[in-house]
């Protein structure tokens, strides 16, 4: 008996080994990490999927209980609004409700104005969705699916399309149709926000902790980058695009924490100001890196101070991560700042002594002067770090009667907004022409799905990639709904059984949505699952209705993806070239404006372009991309120093000769086009001549205040000269594309 048991066990082991070799092939077992979201999800992902599934089933049950005509729209709205955190859910629900109201009103007006003019009707429908895309592109925040201000315009677009296309067949009942759609959407929003509020515990404390952890996360990236810079890696800032991306992303997420905190005391404003200060801190690092390119600039005093600052930066994230007062850190930071100022003043004193006592050692004086400039820039960098830590402390410990404000800023491109609007309008109008020309019985459904896709993705920078992922999710949901409609859904006769049949497919969609690589595919899956199931009180989705809905859906996804690739497709070369021209125009504008921009505006616009540029291509190590990224940061550095030179010239402290040399450089910058006449161009030559003249004039200046202003002007001019020289390939705009120049 025992031998028989052993033989059966050995047989089972042999069978298991053969099965593994057959399914997985030879060698070590394959990793299935990309399926962990399905078989081993984390607690938060499973909680989100379970909570949203329950909310969707409750909304569907209420809609069936009320005997609404299309109850699936209530559950569908739950999936559109539900997010991983309470703040995101509430923010998206608010803007979704706003978009629903705007889209409903516009749809009623459209159907009431032109029920008997089909082509004009299609033109106005397409133009209306294009207008929503145009407005959404100009709203503050990144052009991403997580920007819920833009989502308000997306919701306006597809609500407008759904109601207007439903009203085509019954224009006399457009008000009833609109009110029915508004009822579904309102019901889904109310159910989702109510159910999600039951799963929140100590929401305000967790929101405050998330604000602090976001700051520490951004601070860690900044301090590591600046630490490498002080240790000798002069390109550490320009080769760290992920630091800027992290700061920008975390800044956009502050508003969700503000919503979760409820009645707050401007903690979010201080958090945004702290993250903005870290962006300016990185720009100070670029100034320091440019001055380090100057020969004979590093001396003993600077090297010792840079080592102390580098050690301080390495330990800083761990010291502010704990819930401890920031005062000790600020005191140590003040000591470092005082050391930088004292050593800079000592260098200036040595330089004055060398300039006023004969014989004058010009080489020694030059080294001391450059070391003093480095110490001065290092002190400015520490001042900016102090500002960021102070704002962080005020966000963590809010004060009563605080009226501080730091609003979100938008740096949208009007040309991009027009392109997005035109792309959406033409795509929808062409789908309408297909419906009119072919008299396809399901052409109206086809056009509705195309309108939904255009409303959702036309505000993105790369809609073709988004629609490709959306197509994958659509194919999956068509297969799942085929299984449900043709086999499972024919059995249940009560709502309880219907909910049991839908719970597993919904739970799978929720788990996929919580897995970042599958977000867009999961959106399509969750959006169209209930549309293809079509639950009703009196009836079921039979095979004819299923195929007549699935086919237009699939063709609409293919058509939209094809149009995004054919009509005004995403052109990375053109986008880079436009960004490059905008930088050159911006430098001319900064040098010539009567009322100059604020430095924060220059930094914000440059960082926004930097992040857009770094995310437009998957090849992060591309030589051309790296040159463009360096050029964008170089343009920001030059722009900030142009503003500093304007402030120095406005004071009128410089000697007449230095004033004229600096003003000549600014006059050339006002006509800066990037088209160089020589090796470095007129602007580069004017900058070089101004640097040479100020160096000679500064060495013989005996007035301390005048010499200090000349050193400030000289530091800015040296930074501009270095950036123009180091990034000549970017600023030389004589070739159509930088890519061809490097090929």
UniProtKB/TrEMBL annotation:
Key words, A-Z: Cell membrane, Membrane, Transmembrane, Transmembrane helix, Transport
A Pfam family this chain is assigned to: FUSC
Transmembrane segments: 46-66, 95-112, 118-139, 182-201, 417-437, 443-460, 469-490, 510-533, 545-564, 625-643
Subcellular location: Cell membrane
Membrane topology per record: Multi-pass membrane protein
Principal place of residence: membrane
Name used for this protein in its record: FUSC family protein
Organism: Acetobacter cerevisiae
Lineage start: Bacteria, Pseudomonadati, Pseudomonadota, Alphaproteobacteria, Acetobacterales
């Amino acid at each position: 008996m025992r031998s028989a048991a052993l033989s059966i066990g050995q047989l089972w082991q042999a069978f298991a080994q053969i099965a593994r070799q057959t399914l997985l092939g030879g060698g070590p077992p394959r990793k299935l990490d990309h399926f962990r979201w399905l078989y081993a999800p984390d607690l938060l992902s499973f909680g989100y999927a379970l909570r949203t599934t329950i909310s969707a089933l409750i909304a569907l049950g209420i809609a069936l209980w009320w005997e609404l005509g299309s109850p699936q729209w209530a559950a569908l709205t739950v999936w559109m609004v539900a997010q991983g955190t309470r703040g995101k859910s509430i923010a998206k629900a608010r803007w979704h409700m706003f978009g629903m109201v705007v889209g409903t009103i516009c749809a009623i007006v459209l159907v009431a104005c032109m029920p008997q003019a089909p082509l004009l009707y299609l033109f106005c429908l397409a133009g209306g969705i294009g207008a929503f895309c145009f407005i959404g592109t100009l709203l503050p925040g990144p052009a991403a699916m997580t920007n819920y201000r833009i989502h308000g315009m997306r919701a306006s677009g597809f609500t407008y399309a759904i109601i207007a296309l439903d009203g085509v067949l019954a224009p006399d009942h457009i008000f009833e149709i609109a009110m029915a759609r508004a009822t579904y959407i309102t019901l889904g929003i109310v159910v989702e926000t109510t159910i999600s509020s039951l799963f929140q515990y100590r929401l305000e404390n967790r929101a405050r902790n998330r604000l602090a952890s976001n700051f520490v996360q951004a601070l860690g990236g900044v301090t590591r980058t600046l630490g490498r810079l002080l240790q000798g890696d002069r390109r550490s800032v320009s080769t760290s695009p992920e630091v800027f991306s992290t700061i920008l992303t975390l800044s956009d997420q502050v508003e969700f924490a503000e919503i979760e905190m409820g009645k707050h005391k401007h903690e979010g404003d201080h958090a945004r100001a702290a993250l903005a200060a870290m962006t300016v801190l990185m720009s100070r690092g670029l100034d320091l890196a440019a001055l380090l390119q100057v020969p004979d600039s590093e001396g003993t005093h600077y090297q010792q101070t840079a080592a102390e600052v580098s050690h301080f930066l390495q330990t800083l994230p761990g010291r502010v991560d704990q819930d401890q007062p920031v005062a000790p850190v600020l005191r140590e930071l003040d000591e470092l700042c005082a050391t930088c100022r004292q050593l800079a003043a000592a260098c200036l004193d040595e330089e004055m002594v060398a300039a006023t006592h004969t014989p004058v050692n010009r080489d020694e004086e030059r080294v001391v002067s450059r070391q003093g400039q480095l110490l001065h820039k290092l002190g400015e960098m520490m001042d900016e770090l102090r500002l960021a830590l102070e704002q962080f402390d005020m966000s963590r410990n809010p004060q009563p009667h605080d009226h501080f404000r730091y609003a979100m800023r938008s740096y949208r491109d009007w040309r991009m907004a027009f392109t997005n609007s035109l792309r959406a309008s033409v795509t929808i109008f062409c789908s309408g022409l297909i419906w009119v020309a072919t008299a396809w019985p399901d052409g109206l459904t086809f056009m509705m799905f195309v309108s939904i896709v255009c409303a959702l993705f036309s505000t993105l920078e790369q809609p073709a990639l988004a629609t490709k992922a959306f197509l994958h999710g659509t194919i999956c949901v068509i297969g799942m709904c085929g299984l449900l409609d043709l086999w499972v859904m024919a059995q249940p006769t009560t709502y309880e059984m219907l909910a049991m049949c839908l719970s597993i497919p919904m739970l799978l969609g929720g788990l996929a949505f919580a897995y970042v690589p599958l977000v867009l595919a999961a959106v399509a899956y969750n959006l169209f699952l209930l549309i293809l199931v079509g639950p009703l009180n009196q009836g079921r989705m039979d095979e004819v209705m299923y195929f007549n809905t699935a086919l237009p859906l699939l063709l609409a996804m293919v058509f939209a993806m094809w149009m995004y690739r054919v009509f005004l497709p995403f052109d990375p070369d053109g986008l880079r070239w436009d960004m490059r021209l905008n930088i050159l125009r911006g430098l001319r504008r900064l040098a010539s404006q009567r009322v100059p921009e604020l430095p924060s505006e220059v930094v914000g616009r440059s960082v926004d372009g930097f992040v857009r540029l770094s995310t437009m291509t998957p090849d992060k190590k591309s030589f051309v991309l790296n040159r463009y990224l360096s050029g964008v940061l170089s343009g920001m550095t030059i722009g900030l120093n142009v503003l500093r030179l304007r402030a120095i010239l406005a004071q009128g402290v410089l000697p007449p000769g230095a004033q004229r040399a600096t003003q000549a450089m600014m006059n050339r910058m006002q006509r800066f086009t990037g088209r160089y006449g020589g090796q470095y161009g007129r602007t580069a030559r004017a900058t070089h001549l101004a640097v040479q003249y100020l160096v000679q004039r500064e060495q013989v200046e005996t007035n301390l205040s005048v010499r200090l202003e000349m050193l400030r002007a000289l530091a800015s001019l040296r930074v501009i000269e270095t950036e123009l020289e180091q990034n000549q390939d970017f600023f030389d705009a004589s070739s159509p594309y930088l890519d061809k120049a490097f090929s």
